[in-house]
Amino acid sequence: MTLTADQSRTYGYDDLPRLMGLMTGDEKHGPAATSTLDVLWVLYDRVLRVAPERRDDPARDRFLLSKGHGPMAYYAVLAAKGFVPVDWLPGFGAYDSPLGHHPDRVLVPGAEIGSGSLGHGLPIAVGTALGLRAQDRPDPAVWVLVGDAELDEGSNHEAIAFAGPAGLDRLHAVVIDNSSASHALPGGIAARFRAAGWSAVTVDGRDHEALYAAFTAPHPGRPHVVVARVEPKNA
Amino acid sequence: MDTMRDRFAPVVSRLLDEDPRVAVVLAEIGRDGFREAERRHPDRVINVGIREQLLIGTAAGLALTGLRPVVHTFASFLVERPFEQVKLDLGHQDTGAVLVSAAASFDWPAGGFTHMAPGDVALLDTLDGWTVHVPGHPDEAETLLHHAIAAGDDKVYVRLSVQSNRQGRVIDGQHFVTAREGRSGVVVAVGPVLDAVLAATEGMDVTVLYATTVRPFDAAGLRRATETAGTDVVLVEPYLAGTSTAAVSEALSDVPHRVLGLGVGRRELRRYGTIEEHVAAHGLDAASLRERIGRFVGAGLLPAGR
After folding, report:
1. May I ask the CATH architecture of the domain B4-159?
2. Which residues of A touch B66 (CB under 8 A)?
3. Nearest-angstrom CA–CA distance, A153 and A120
4. % of chain A beyond a pLDDT of 70
């Protein structure tokens, strides 16, 4: 498979709006148009030890996009980092395009899971962390991105309640909090995770340095969640 | 006699020792059998608590890292409750696992309908790529568990039951076995119903095929049997009646044929009691089967019936 049509050039954060525009036909995509953009960029640019040529390396970090809807920012970042050819982007959603409105891991190079139905990523991430631990691979980090409203799904709470007591310290969750849940978690998102034994940090989801610090904060013996607050969806 | 489930933990515990890919995922149920294995392999015997969505999601995650998860609980909590996880985390994610269920259709009748899963195989039939084993004896359960775990990254369901035949047969994890030969109809007996079917068809001129692997369905084996026994086919299944009727119709789609699907009824009985009482209530005891099979095959022999 050709991984990128123009491997010669590098893309930066400033290119992401244009890459997203290739999918939507809209040239004016500001970061505010997508709640996940900054989190995804900081993770892929500075935190995750992943690369197109390491897609099958068992020692790679795993990033699982659980909140699969609105994946334009994800595809843009994957294209910027060379996982997905930029010339795939205009086909977004077409019958023969690998890039659907929800990602499919079988079709998208670099996508660790397919998603769309909410509440599946965190349990799969728990299993991934357990599987790496069982094979004496303490190094790879497992990351899963969920939305605040996605936490409505009970399956997440099965995973949250298990991962803390199990001491899955290679498991990391990032919750994009755009206040989209109709019934917000009583006590707040971070408190829910903390009560289950997680390390938890809440930061400005647009502040790259704050995100980086939160993503790389030590959390010995415990899984770690970063709650990334962005503009309310319905503000 | 011990049960299929008595064999499950010892067999899988040995495989945990031998094969570093094997991992067991439990949701409390069945944990006692794995205590020793859990001590030896604390990272590969995983109990997620009473959390069945996490049970399947965890298995998928393990498989994504290259392990071979063996997942166990009662059928109703393994297939029905987390069905979307079975569909997506295993199917859509293109991962594999071995799901091993207990309690079957009515292994614990006094436990009531919440612990009965006659629809498990029919539900899996809505999905692509599943192998379904239905052993009829503890020895067969051992054989099929070995086949299931050795089957690469396939998606495999093994349906264990308390219901059992008196003796095990030689099975290969793929094909039907001919238990009796006749010329006036084929009866396919699935797993633990074989003894009742053999008793029911005593003296009848029918072929009895014994099936312990129903998906993929041994269409070639059925067709071969119909060459001498004709194309009147009776299915006797220990789960929802008619579950394999479509598979028979597909196997015989180019020849005129008749199919009778016997098995567990849809209607909720709202009765407790014993397995034998539930077998009888669903018309799966030898006397009821003899009457129903005889009527169907007999009707096929009448000139007016053709």
Report:
1. 3-Layer(aba) Sandwich (3.40)
2. 58, 131, 135
3. 9
4. 93
**Arithmetic mean of pLDDT over chain B:** 97
Cβ distance B57 to A120 less than 8 Å, yes or no, reads yes
Instruction: Indicate the number of domains in chain A.
Output: 1
List b or e across A40-70, with b for residues whose CB sees 16 or more CB atoms inside 10 angstroms: bbbbbeebbebebeeeeeeebbbbbbbbbee
For the cut 50, the answer to whether the pLDDT of residue A5 exceeds it is no
How far apart are alpha carbons A99 and A55 in whole angstroms? Answer: 18
Contacts of A57 (CB under 8 A, 6+ apart): none
Work out the minimum CA distance from A157 to partner chain B, whole angstroms: 9
B84 min Cα distance to partner chain A (Å)? 9
**Residue A142 CA: distances (Å) to CA of A70, A173, A193:** 22, 8, 17
Residue B164 predicted with pLDDT over 50: yes
Contact (Cβ atoms closer than 8 angstroms) between residue B184 and residue B233: no
Whole-angstrom Cα distance, residue B49 to residue B26? 7
Residue A76 C-alpha, separation from nearest chain B C-alpha, in angstroms? 22
Dist. CA B99–CA A32, nearest whole Å: 44
Please determine, for residue B305, whether its predicted confidence score (pLDDT) is greater than 60. no
State the residue for tokens 């379904």.
B132
Interval B199-242: pLDDT, tens:
999 999 999 999 999 999 999 999 999 999 999 999 999 999 99
pLDDT computed for residue A234 by the predictor: 79
Residue A3 maps to a domain: no
Q: Which residue has the higher pLDDT, B300 or B200?
A: B200
* Torsion of the alpha carbons at A128, A129, A130 and A134, rounded to the nearest 10: 100
CA A110 distance to own-chain centroid = 12
For residue A7, being part of any structural domain is answered with no
**Residue B116 burial by CB count (10 A; 0-12/13-18/19+): exposed, middle or buried?**
buried
Domain that holds residue A134: 13-229
* ipTM score assigned to the predicted complex: 0.95
User: Terminal CA-to-CA distance of chain B, rounded, Å?
Assistant: 46
pLDDT tens digits, A41-88: 999 999 999 999 999 999 999 999 999 988 999 999 999 999 999 999
Q: Options 3.40.109.10, 3.40.50.2000, 3.40.50.920, 3.20.20.80; which CATH number does B177-305 get? A: 3.40.50.920
